[in-house]
Amino acid sequence: MSERRSRPHAVLFACGMNAVRSPMAAGLFKQMFGTAVYVGSAGVQKGELDPFVVAVMDEVGIDVSRHKPTTFEELEELEGLSFDLIVTLSPPAHHKALELTHTIAADVEYWPTVDPTGIEGSREQRLDAYREVRDQLTARIRERFGGPAGGNE
Question: What is the pTM for the complete model shown?
Answer without folding.
Answer: 0.90
